[in-house]
Amino acid sequence: MKNVIFVAIAALLGCTDGGESLALTGNGLLTGYPSCSPRVDDTELLAIGTLDTSVRSTYAMSPTVRNLVESADDEEDQIRNSAFFRRINVKVNVPEDVIPQAEQQNLAPYLKFSVPVAGKIAPNAGITQFYVEAVREEVGDALHQKLNDGDFASISVGVQVVAELKRSEQASNWIEFPIEVCRGCLTNLLSQSCQALPTDYPVVNPCRVGQDEVLSCCEDATNGQPVCPARSIATTSP
Question: Which CATH number fits domain 3-182: 2.60.40, 1.50.10, 3.30.230, 3.30.160?
């Protein structure tokens, strides 16, 4: 189940530190399957993520940002006060007791990097979201090797958005997003075989298998192999 926080936008807009023009409010939610696109809304944000390395080695985030510059309604002023995005800065923080510092040196390009982005956001608390693969495959694979089945490890990802605003480059605040990394915690093997499930058994497709949402599987009684997501399989008469 997703951990969601509710954000008071009015309080946010009045309490930015240092008078930032760009406010990164958090990691946004995705719309449901099958569209699975970032939901441009920050009244609800994901409080903590989960990555199951037994089925996935990457974690994607949807940083949500607002342009807090106030502007008149005329088109010229709106354009002048719009933010034109350039890049997202990412820092992945892994405790040394999970991956030793010496091994982290080999992962340095994947623990701190920038991703070019494009797009603009209007002033007066205009809002948009981005999509960024924050935990890269190399880091996910390294974490997987350090975990046994049933183990958990806590990491965090720092994200910052950079844009051109009022003819100068400006950066948002950093957000620190916690992620629980596990090996097998998001897969649930049902006690019933696929053949024993009712024909109207609901098939639930996570937006990203192995990220944030539990994936239910059933066993195909004919070959003993897991079927994911779980679904009813008709029994064939001999």
Answer: 2.60.40
Q: Map out the domains of the chain as residue ranges.
A: 3-182, 187-227
> Could you say which residues of the chain have pLDDT below 70?
1-19, 235-238
In sequence order, the 6+-apart residues with CB closer than 8 A to the CB of 46 are 2, 3, 4, 5, 26, 27, 28, 29, 177, 212
pLDDT at 138: 97
d(CA 179, CA 215): 18
DSSP track, 199-233: TTPPP---SSTTBSS-EEEEE-TTT--EESS----
> What pTM did the predictor assign?
0.84
CA distances from 210 to 118, 132, 154, 232 (A): 28, 16, 16, 22
At residue 94, φ and ψ (nearest 5 deg) are -115, 125
Q: What is the pLDDT of residues 158-177, one digit of tens each?
A: 999 999 998 899 999 999 99
